Amino acid sequence: MSGVAQLRKVSGQSLQSHAVDELGGRIARGAVPVGAVLNPEDLAREFGVSRTIIREAFRTLEALGMIDARPRVGTVIRPASSWDLLDHRVIHWRNDGPQASEQLRELMVLREAIEPTGAGLAAVRATDDELESLDGLFAEMSQAMAANDVAAFARSDAAFHALIVHTSRNAVLQQLLTTLEATLHSRYSNRLPTFSGVSAVALARHGELVAALRARESDAAAEVMRTLIRESQEELFRIEGRP
After folding, report:
1. Are residues 74 and 163 in the same domain?
2. pLDDT (0 to 100) of residue 191
3. Residue that terminates a domain, selected from 82, 110, 135
4. Chain-centre distance of CA 56, in angstroms?
5. How far is CA 107 from CA 86, 88, 129, in A?
6. Average pLDDT of 154-158?
7. Number of C-alpha atoms within 13 angstroms, CB side, residue 48?
8. Residue 55: phi, psi to the nearest 5?
9. SS3 helix, strand, coil % of the chain, rounded to 5?
10. Is pLDDT above 90 for 36?
11. Are 166 and 227 contained in the same domain?
12. Most buried residue, 54, 85, 90, 152, by CB count within 10 Å?
């Protein structure tokens, strides 16, 4: 579907966000090469919107480091090294582009850096009600795997990991929640299979993690989370045929 067809399906208040999404996706997919100059008049005609909406979309993409307005040159595409790679929108856009696999590997490294710390804090800070919620999400994951329901498993797994970071009560970690959620979305929307030969082991790790949290064992919770993520990373490499 063309950009204008997509934009005409939404209200005037949503036109800017859809323009941002369309342009950001094009840049991340490499449809517009680095160094290329964007013409706001051409884009306004293509999308069927005002130049004001395109300019506002440009401001958003510039804040994300994806484009740069240069005097006497125009608005040019910047290299990926300049982008805000932790922003959930950029993660979603890159997931549909040629950098999808590399991004997923890099985000797995980020998960290993932040989630064990979050789990260790959650072991001492989570409320009993929050632990009950984790129990429920683990049960949902188990049921989804038994039913081979990928969508249900993905939802429950994302909610499980997000809740652990939330219960860490650490404001800095909590600010990374949208990045974490986008990371998990990237994993499940990737072309790699969700369920594999080690899925049962990964599910069991989630159960071990809940047990460590319920026992209020901070070090154990952190270590189980670290093991879970490392094993997931190793499985990712195996599927991709990497050493």
Report:
1. no
2. 60
3. 82
4. 24
5. 9, 12, 30
6. 92
7. 11
8. -65, -40
9. 70, 5, 25
10. yes
11. yes
12. 54
